[in-house]
From TrEMBL:
Keywords: Oxidoreductase. GO terms for biological process: pyrimidine nucleobase catabolic process. This is Flavin reductase. SMART domains: Flavin_Reduct. It comes from Jiangella aurantiaca. InterPro entries: Flavin_Rdtase-like_dom, NADH-dep_flavin_reductase, Split_barrel_FMN-bd.
C-alpha cells in the first residue's frame, strides 16, 4: 500500500479537556456526496484515537507542499500526556473549536457520523458541515513510498 500515492491531511480535534490535538493522516477519502461524508483512518493505540469518540467535531486540512514541517510535526511520536503546539502555523478555529490550517490547499469541518472498527485502526466517518473558503495553499502535498512529493507534470491520453 505504500506504493499508492495519496494526499496528506492533518486531522484536528479537541481532546476531552479542550486541548488541540492533531495527527497527520494519509488514509483519507471522500465517501459520499449525499450526505457529504469523508473518512480518515486512525490507529487505535494512537494518542488522538480516544478523543474522536467524545469529540463534537473534527476537521481535515489538506496540506500544501510547503507545509512539510507541519506534516512531520503531526506524524511525530508522542508520549502519554504530550501536548500539541500548532502556534508556528497559521490557523483559525472551526465552528466546534478544532483548528483549521489556513495555509492548506483545502479543509473540511465534520461532525461525527460513525466510527467503524477496522483491525488495528478505526475508520472515522464524518459528515461535512463546512468547507474552508480561506485555504490559501496552491500545490498539494503528496505521500508515496514513505516520501513526500509535489504533484508533477499533468499526464493525459489521446482519445
Amino acid at each position: 500500500m505504500a506504493r499508492l500515492a495519496g494526499g496528506v491531511a492533518l486531522l484536528t480535534v479537541l481532546d476531552p479537556v479542550g486541548r488541540d490535538c492533531g495527527l497527520t493522516v494519509t488514509a483519507v477519502s471522500s465517501v459520499s456526496l449525499e450526505p457529504p461524508l469523508v473518512l480518515a483512518c486512525v490507529k487505535k493505540d494512537g494518542f488522538i484515537h480516544d478523543a474522536l469518540f467524545v469529540a463534537d467535531g473534527w476537521s481535515l486540512s489538506f496540506l500544501a507542499a510547503d507545509q512539510l514541517d507541519l506534516s512531520d510535526y503531526g506524524a511525530r511520536e508522542r508520549h502519554p500526556g504530550a501536548r500539541d503546539d500548532f502556534s508556528p502555523w497559521p490557523t483559525r478555529r472551526a465552528a466546534r473549536g478544532e483548528l483549521i490550517f489556513t495555509g492548506a490547499v483545502a479543509a473540511v469541518e465534520c461532525v461525527p457520523y460513525d466510527l467503524v472498527d477496522a483491525g488495528d485502526h478505526t475508520i472515522a466517518l464524518g459528515r461535512v458541515t463546512a468547507v474552508a473558503r480561506d485555504a490559501g495553499g496552491a500545490v498539494p502535498l503528496v505521500h508515496v513510498d514513505r516520501r513526500y512529493y509535489e504533484p508533477g507534470t499533468e499526464v493525459s491520453f489521446d482519445s
